[in-house]
Amino acid sequence: MTRIPISALLGLLFTAAFFLAAILAPWLSPYGMAEVVGDVWEPMSPTHWLGTDSIGRDLLSRMIWGGRVTIFVAVCATLIAFLTGVVLGFLAAVAGGWVDQALSRLVDLMMSIPALIFALVILSVMPTTLPILIMVMGLIESTRVFRLSRAVAIDIEVMDYVEAARLRGEGNLWIITREILPNALSPLVAEAGLRFIFMVLFISTLSFLGLGVQPPLADWGGIVKENKDGIVYGIPAALLPAVAIATLAISVNLVADWILNRTSSLKGGRG
Amino acid sequence: MNAGSLLGLVAQRIALGLVLLLAASALIFAGTQILPGDVAQSILGQSATPQALANLRAELGLDQPALTRYFSWLAGALQGDLGNALSNGQDIATSMSHRLGNTLFLAGTAAIIAVPLALILGLVSVRYQGRWPDKVISGVTLATVSVPEFMLGYIAMFLLAVQFQVFPSVSTIYDGMSLGEQLQAIALPALVMVLVVLGHMMRMTRAAILNVMQSAYIETAELKGLRRFTIISRHALPNAIAPIVNVVMLNLAYLVVGVVVVEVVFVYPGMGQYLVDHVSKRDVPVVQACGLVFAAVYIGMNMIADIVALLANPRLRHPK
């Protein structure tokens, strides 16, 4: 913990900047989110730092508000994925037997259908509102979290201190919250970073396909969808969200890498 | 080696795949049924007249219990009858077969380029481990996996179709085009899909070979004075082949999903475009059919990956 490598520091810095921009969007953005303030696809200028979009809204403001929606949805979906995935994963590892079998086979089944396809199938009959998007994404991704947390918990469950706790008569709840959780925290935190990025990509993809966040609300995938026609005329507005997503993804990855490396060197390789 | 037991294991894996597919079909069907409310209502919206609702319910067979509908749908699908689209009344299997061919053509082209390229790049980066070629390859592949497919698509379109005008920006494809013209048309989407899967495959190849490079027999080969590239390609690669094949198959399976988005970007007349169009039209029978086909391809690829791993690694044949 004494020295943070430069790469992780940069990652932390950029991640913090993105989250701050998301939280402070109402104060940071120079114009309103849905306010038409100029001509169609104006170039970058001192009044509109990133130019304007397909119907003349300020692109910088759209990007900041879009980041707020994107990050908010991704954070909520990650939380749901972790709450369900970790609780069920630990339960499967501790309870074993038919509980483990039933949960694991159900997860196998859900993972046998690609996440995007499964989401599309469900969204074809569901209304696309933010809470439903968050639930669908969170529950589909919880399968991946379940796999990891079950694997980590099974490793820990055979440790002597867990057996000691069992012998002195502690119940499953104690074992899960007091013995397994603290020891499984590092790989789970690193995984949370990666899952968060995956959620950002997931919601951007859904919005780009027109099945995610609905207008007039903006998110990064939606900004690409609105401005994609400009590409053919050489207007790069649709590429801006790519820069934002890639920067955020790489920063969070750098932080997650550092957390994983730090823990594996401290605890002799468990990751 | 007992050939009978190997055959048995393979047969077992195929049977498991079929069971999984059956269960997946039930899950896809259930995903469009177990809803808070009525499917007909959510398709037509709040302003629908009671008459239109009743008609749609009858057409979807909603007056029958879900289980009956599932089995008649499944029986139809097994015979190649996927029902009719709600939006235009056309037979789904007919309109799908053509698009499935297009999608497989695109995904196949991408796979033929991506797999050898990933292996070569993996070998090169192990050969120059820690030096600049390794770092450049790692950096570029990290960047390509951090950007979603559709973004890569538009970046490629912006650079190669608009700024330099090497390739067409829209991949129109129709009967009667020569193979050369078809390849020209799909160059950009194929490039994007190669970039999407290349990073992961190359990284896993590198990791798998590096893992083997720590074995004692590699040290022996080094002490014998073999050239480093010979050691990697002749001694390390064959022993790393099982994990590599696994990753390759998983990425090919992933291509089938990535194709959905890439097709929308380049307006390519394939399965992905078909699926996305009909999700927004809330055309449930088409969505179910597409979901089933995608799941079948995905499960099939994963099954092949397991079988190849089984054949390549004798240790897996004797589970402890």
From TrEMBL, chain A:
It is found in: Cell membrane. GO terms for biological process: transmembrane transport. PROSITE patterns: ABC_TM1. Residues 67-256 form the ABC transmembrane type-1 domain. Keywords: Cell membrane, Membrane, Transmembrane, Transmembrane helix, Transport. It is a multi-pass membrane protein. The keyword Metal-binding does not apply. It comes from the Bacteria. CDD domains: TM_PBP2. Gene3D superfamilies: MetI-like. SUPFAM superfamilies: MetI-like (SSF161098). The chain crosses the membrane at residues 6-28, 69-95, 115-140, 192-211, 231-260. One of its GO terms (cellular component) is plasma membrane. PANTHER family: OLIGOPEPTIDE TRANSPORT SYSTEM PERMEASE PROTEIN APPC, PEPTIDE ABC TRANSPORTER PERMEASE PROTEIN. Belongs to the binding-protein-dependent transport system permease family. This is ABC transporter permease subunit.
